[in-house]
Amino acid sequence: MKSKYYIGVLTAAVLLLTACNSESLTATSSDEELQVSVGINTRAAATYDATSFDAGKTIGISLEQTASNYAPFQNVAYTTDGTSWSPATGAIQLRVGDTNTRGVAYYPYRANTNPAAIAITCDTETDWMYSTWSNTVHRKSHTASFEMHHAQTVIAIEINSSAYTDIGDLTELTVESDAFGLGGTLNAINGVLSSVNTANITQAYTDANVRTTSFSDQFYVLTTGEEASLTVTLSLDGRTIMGTAPAIQFEQGKRYTFEVVVNNGWLAIRRVTIVPWDVTHDSDKQEFIIQDPT
Known about the structure:
The chain is an all-beta fold. Helix content is 1%, strand content 46%. The strands form 4 sheets. Strands 8, 11, 13, 14, 16, 19, 20 and 21 form an 8-stranded mixed β-sheet that branches. The protein has a 7-stranded mixed β-sheet with strand order 2-10-9-7-3-4-5, with no helix packed on it. The chain has a 4-stranded antiparallel β-sheet with strand order 15-12-17-18, with no helix packed on it. Strand 13 (180-186) and strand 14 (193-198) form a beta hairpin.
């Protein structure tokens, strides 16, 4: 599976991105304030499937070209009240004149950062997002619409313990593969990832039982673009059991759910289900049987 990225042709103004957003603004009476519209199907949070930005969330906006009487403004913070977007406290108000311009946005905003090279580390809360180029805006049509896309991938582990007869206390879960990492650099202008470091997912649990409850957990990762096998290791009732899936290549913006079957003394990764992060229709789902333990 090859990831596909939309790579815009960057002008010199964008290539010279800076983290500064406090340059003086020379406006004319005919210039209009830039209005911002953000479109997303899902915006993951702790639940991984929230459908909107909460009030107080902030994106960074960079313009490709500004009106001739402005200096280029990059990485300007805009915050939502849950309904509309406006400059964050201390940020400039972007304005547009007669010259056509367009922009890109990313989430979450980070100050003093080049949007073309953001160092990110995956955690359980932050859904890094980027937009494609907005529509063209100018003085007479000054609402920029940003369609946000997920920069990360979700790996979900679901444990099937129907054949397991021991106590079922799970104390640690590890997922390892050269196909993903937990840190790297995001070009928020086009969504391209680089310098992704391979790293294991390791999650400890204090009150997880795979027999008394339906167990699942999920994690944000960054694709390395490589095709590699994936190994799941469980510490279950004081024993360490593991299973391996054949080579897989992860794609940005998709959720991969691995069904892990456990029996007394062994583990098998039975199937993987792949769905676009932003789409839940059954027609968009892919399912592959990896190993049938029966």
